[in-house]
Write the structure tokens for this entry.
Amino acid sequence: MRMKSAKGEVLATILVLTLLPAILFPAPLVAVDVKPDLTFTYKCLSWFLMDLKSAKIITEMVSKIGVKFELQPLDSHILYPQIENKEFEVNSVSQGQGPSPRNPLELYHSSGDYPGGPNDTGIRNATLDEYLEKAYTEMDMEKRKEYLGIVQYILAEQIPCIPIFVGDETHVIRSEWEGYVVMPGGIMDVNNIWTLLGLHDTTPGVEEQVFVMALPSYIGGFNMLDHRDWRTWYVVTLLAYDTRLKYDPELNIIPWLAKEYSIAPDGKTYTFKLRENAVWHDGEPLTAEDVKFTLEYMKEQKVPYIYEDVKHITSVETPDPYTVIVHLDTSFWLLEYDFAMDIPILPKHIWEGKPWDWDNIVPGGNLIGGDLIGSGPFMLKKYVEGEYLEFWRNDNWWYPQKPILDKYIFKVLRTQEARLMAMKKGEVDTERYETPPSLIPEVVADPNLKLVPSTGIWMVNVEFNIREGPLSDVWVRRAIAHAIDKQEIVDRVMLGWGKVANSVLPKCWYPQYYNPDIPIYEYNVTKANQILEEHGYIDVDGDGVRELPGAKPPVAPWYTSPIAQVGIIAAVAIVAVVVGAALYVRSVKKAMAAGEG
Amino acid sequence: MGAKEYIIRRAISSITLFFLAIILNFFIFRIMPGDPTMTIIDIRMTPEMIEELRRRFGLDKPLWEQFLLYLRGVFTGDFGRSFEWRHLTVWEVIFERRFQNTLILMGSSMCLAMVIGTLLGILAAYKRGSKFDAAATFVSLFVYSTPIFWSGLIVLLIFSYYLGWIPSGGTLSWEIEHTPITYVLDYLHHMIAPMIILSLWFLASYFMVMRSSILDVFTQDYIVTAEAKGLSDRRILFRHAARNALLPTVSLMAVHSSYLISGATLTETVFSWYGMGKLMYDAVMFCDYPVLHGIFFLMSVVVILANFIADIAYMYLDPRIRY
């Protein structure tokens, strides 16, 4: 009897197993996927959480209007070449914002649309080009605003990209520190000299003012002309070097090492009067010769990054040791911003005769002879590769007000958790970058720490490749824009620490240029669906993704009709029963044979 | 076949292996996706500048020429300039501080793990089935299967944050004026936590291998003979059993030898230890071929050499081995 029941189980199992797929997953037997449809690959950086989390939510949001984003998080060295070569349909790569409103010119002019060029989206619009060219050579502020307003309008209307939000710089600093200045970019931004001047420890009876900043990794090098990360820039450029001009806390350009400057009405001549008491860290005076040398050096040596800024310079004159006149071939006013940020002044007596080449700047920038020679408020005193850097205040600095800090220390702590613990404990006073929103409740709960938020530098931005395919239809892009709830992304990704952006020149960074009258795509799923319906994007095959206009409903293959499916199930069942019966008969025969034996 | 002939044969096969490894080292990184020039790209880089970078990196040459240059580099010991740390040569990147840091950390934790793990393994096998055996097995497997980035953070939380006994990371403190003596003390102070975490992690392998190996030896006839001779348990355990049971441990050491160069990326990250593990990770991320060539060259040398030495050591540890 036992034998018999075992065979019954086998029979039942076979039946269930054969029928199970048909019962559980009827879809593969029914659906026929019609292509092409509104399915797009969606690429973003795998390690930048702000981008990655936003991209996941955006993928979710567009699925509600029958658009499918296939998310591909990739590492930088794989993603960047693909974007450079325009091998993407949609991407989310944050755009860095800064005081200089250069992004529109660099990213959306048709001259940048070639493999490897900066125009990723492939927008080619003659009117846009015209106004970009006008805007970036216009010296009159009112006209410049007007032209940049038109540029923003065209970009919002044509929508090659959807600006989502600018993340906040949620900076954490120990409570005893005061005197920092909040600026767009944060209290520890590369442009923020004011924090550097005012920062001090308010602990009563503190003898030495020592500020320790945790870096996530060691700086890339000391070379001014080969920095590729914000750490190096902050540590080396801000502390050890000076620029001619600077930004005040409202990001207006003010005279700095140049005590006064003027720009000719045609925008082609800049005249700088330098301070007369500026000296290099080694005691040599800083003169117009150094300024002239730096500009010519950058241009002659075609130093990457900076060359694009200085290529319009035709000649540099130094009528006296403290006057510099720079002639340009065009009125390119972005240069004024560059003088305030990107272009430092290098010591001629150290750099002269050394071509820009990695072999000539070992070890680490102009550390030839052992010291980093700049003219800035701090001097590099000591460093251990990979561990820490120790800067001391430069008491011979030319500026009337000196920093209060005696020492500025940079210490490498690789993980976010270690940096937060070290801040809580007092081993370090702040960290270089913002603290992620998920850790903010812990910061707020700790009386030793305080949170100082300000506008951050990264803007999450969805870019479309509009060269071909359905994304070249502006209505598809507009519908997608209507389907994205930007505030919800800010709330979910940044826990509210961010500002929704509508323009390529976001209001929080460029209040003077932001155009409030551009088309704004409010969050409205119904409207988005309606736009797609009206323009012929219909989901003809019922898989939740809309097909292109004119797509034919699929002709269902014979096996998807209900009758055929019943037939298939019946056939499988019959086969299973027959096989089971055969097995059963065999087992009974065997049992009988065994009984006889 | 005599011992000498065996050594020569092993040497020849090791050298062949070394050459194969060198050839492989060139190609595995070229297959890797990504473009080294793209890791330093900026929207303001013009195509001419990218071309110039490719020229400086030697990437404009055909692959076979790059390969020949690489081979020349291997034999002259010059792997050239790093793509990412462009102001340094490959050897400067590796030997400035990273190599020493990794060698000291990994070497000391491996030695510690080997000595303690082996002793514990012998004891656990001797008292097999006892509470000690069960506890030791459980604990070592538990530690082994705990992710280091988690256990490391817990150690930091307790001993650095709450108790303040150890620093938050790094290898040296900036606060201390470094004389040779304070330097060593400071360095050791920073090394304690990662060393203990790593030793505990390595310990499990040595413990388990030694334990099972001893148990295996206990079933051998010569142990019965030794018992019959009336030798003490301790003498049997250490003189007869342990010595023979050491062979797999020697193999394990040879296998682990690559860690001496490659480091432990997770431990180095959690404790901000400036070593080779993180360097290797970064070099892969930045497609820094020259640095990768340098690291993998060192690694092939060490692993092949360690296995060669292990094979020779076998011969002396176990007189039965003759090929």
Observations:
- Chain B has a mean pLDDT of 88.
